[in-house]
Known about the structure:
This protein is α/β, with parallel strands linked by helices. Helices cover 35% and strands 9% of the residues. The protein has 17 helices and 12 strands.
Amino acid sequence: xxxxxxxxxxxxxxxxxxxxxxxxxxxxxxxxxxxxxxxxxxxxxxxxxxxxxxxxxxxxxxxxxxxxxxxxxxxxxxxxxxxxxxxxxxxxxxxxxxxxxxxxxxxxxxxxxxxxxxxxxxxxxxxxxxxxxxxxxxxxxxxxxxxxxxxxxxxxxxxxxxxxxxxxxxxxxxxxxxxxxxxxxxxxxxxxxxxxxxxxxxxxxxxxxxxxxxxxxxxxxxxxxxxxxxxxxxxxxxxxxxxxxxxxxxxxxxxxxxxxxxxxxxxxxxxxxxxxxxxxxxxxxxxxxxxxxxxxxxxxxxxxxxxxxxxxxxxxxxxxxxxxxxxxxxxxxxxxxxxxxxxxxxxxxxxxxxxxxxxxxxxxxxxxxxxxxxxxxxxxxxxxxxxxxxxxxxxxxxxxxxxxxxxxxxxxxxxxxxxxxxxxxxxxxxxxxxxxxxxxxxxxxxxxxxxxxxxxxxxxxxxxxxxxxxxxxxxxxxxxxxxxxx
Length: 486
């Protein structure tokens, strides 16, 4: 491959005077742009012929890793395959060309799909009603906490300003609580990795607004004391919030609403198969138990398929101008309808089976801090043999050489060398066996030739980047040097 052509930025392939386009004849006349809106100098855009542009971006696209071209065991993210029928439906002109401000009478089909997904999520979760407004999981968390706060304020109970969060929680939990103006109180985990009920008892009083929990938790363990915890939290007048990031293994097994949760969000882009690598797209619907519907965002609506009436909920909560990320909503609804009532019940058990199979196959060479049956994911604490100096980061980088995306590393923070693995339910035994074989091989390499693992990756376009420097000083624009202009 010609690295000069494919390894550089598009700006570096630019040559003055080259064109890859021709503008159509102007049919709209000429209009003057106000001086205050005009550029002072021409935009620094690359000048390339069409073939160079096509080859450049086509070859670069091959450097992207996605669930469509390899195993993606990213713990806590549920990187499941997105069936192509989902994409086809979301791309239908009848949906894709809708405008969010057009009259409801002209988009009855879209409203019916929106309403259908709300009802499906209520059935799956055991909650009364959902809003699809939030655009991400964290946005859903904030919305749910706003609902909880509005509930307490409506009863004149303004002193409830604390939210209890387990020490194993996703980082968005305390962040969302803080953004909502609530105080975060941490509850410890036991040596078995679940919420310490005794520690929780000392934290509950009439200043607690809610307790946020993920079940199964971030370690992939089922919180067996949920009924007791929910009873304690409700007894002190607070509400239970369910972080739906780990909902996938619960499908077909149990429902958050039946466990005593009052409010929850669902990551549509995780559990219901929208590709979300690189920060998006997403959608974080929020559901509430019966009696809390009036606190849902005020622009939430439920529209019967046979009627054009729009029903608004009386609430002062506002989280978005429109009704969520509609393309993600369509993908999720298509996924649910494709599986149907019976097959959706197989999702959770298969995800749990795959995770336990990997865990049991590797725990002799990777350290398993909590040796217990897991749900959809589990956490190793690095390699068992620590004498080689090979770290979790090294293992993750070496996996790239073998064509696998690395699992989540250094999270959760409960262990020094955390390596969190989550296979989705639709991975074949052959794929999982291949991943297990590579993980074992890396464990062997770490003893036989540790430097080869420590210096990985060797087969990628670039080696290890300075993550800290990239985060603190990101370079997001290309500056043309004077020598290049000359």
